[in-house]
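Supplementary Note 3. Input sequence used for the single-chain structure prediction.
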Amino acid sequence: MNVKFKLPKFGRKLTGGGMVKELLLTTLATTISIVLTFGTAHFVEQRQTAQAQRQTAMMLIHDIDASVAIVEELAENEEKQKAAIQYVIDHLDQIDSLPEDTLYTAMTMLGVFFIDEKIFDDAKEKVFNSSQDTWKNLDDVPFVDNMENFYRSRHYLETMMTNAPQWKFPMSQEEYYDWQVQVNSNEQSPQKSCAAILKEKLRDPKIKYYIDFSAYRTRTLRQIAQSWKRLSDRNKFIMNIDDEELAEYIKKSQRSGRTVSRSDLIGQWESETSGKDIQYHDFMKPDSFSIKIRHYANPFYSGDIIITYTVGGKWDIKEDSLVLNYSPESVKAEVDRSGITYRAEMRDSVETFIDRYFQVNQLTEQGRIQFESKKTTFGVSINKAGDKIEMVHGRSEDPENESVSYYYLKRAKDSTK
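The predicted structure, written as discrete structure tokens, is reproduced below.
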């Protein structure tokens, strides 16, 4: 609505009453203009503050949920390892004939190659503690108190897991490394080496003590995860944030670029996964795809054994997600050992190693089992130039997947749409 005010015409003769009237109109117009200007600015500022408050709240709530996922995964791993080592203890008289994967899982309960004392990412905690804007935005005292309690609890758990005797691995990193070397050096029967070492370790009182506390560790992790879930639910309630809004925030925070169309995806793409290992993705019209994975293996000889996996299937774009339905029967494996050389005295060892781990039929069967009834959903976006794709796989796409992984594809030089 446009409001027009009649301003005084200066230079004309006014009576006393007319002058007062004109002055009042001028003052009124000026006052309304000031009120509208500052009122609008205040409204915009309040709205921006409210939006910043919700963004900050969702960031911190997501930090709680991500920490819950880590703790629950730790509890699940503890249970799996305890089940494996308990099975070994119950069948100690048959340990030489137990499956190698069971023995290995049992052994991983006792040590690791590398210990990272930082279990959780504390980036969001630093924002919460150091930014005055955060405190200003989060003016709801119960929310702030809950976040302080959560971070204190997380610090306590991290300290306990790295220092308390019930939580520290009974095997040092050096001992664990020596065990791996002994097992892998026995090329003829690594299972027997693993069984012998594990049998000896199970006599150690320190290791028995650690195993006996497994149920305590699992119970503690589950209880902490549950208490953090309650804090998360409480904070969502306080800030009136529902699961859909939080999921949308997580999705946006995990992605960049623009939404991918079907025509964007058509063509050949490639990515380097680690070192020289490369994946090639070929998306074809109308909805078929092929993925080729080249893996370079190099344990104790010169040159490389090149393992090439190929798998196909059907693809689809649903809103901002890419869905891949794999076809297990399409899996093929190829092994190229032409690029390796070794000393004459190593011939038997190398041939034994290759026969054990690089049989085409065995690799193909493993691949088909891996992709059996498998469907993977990625959040997908593309850069402005249209030559790089970001694929996000994690909780927002797959509720059963607790972690978030990022994959980047670049369009192959000879790609044609």
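The mean pLDDT is 82. The CA atoms of residues 321 and 379 lie 4 Å apart.
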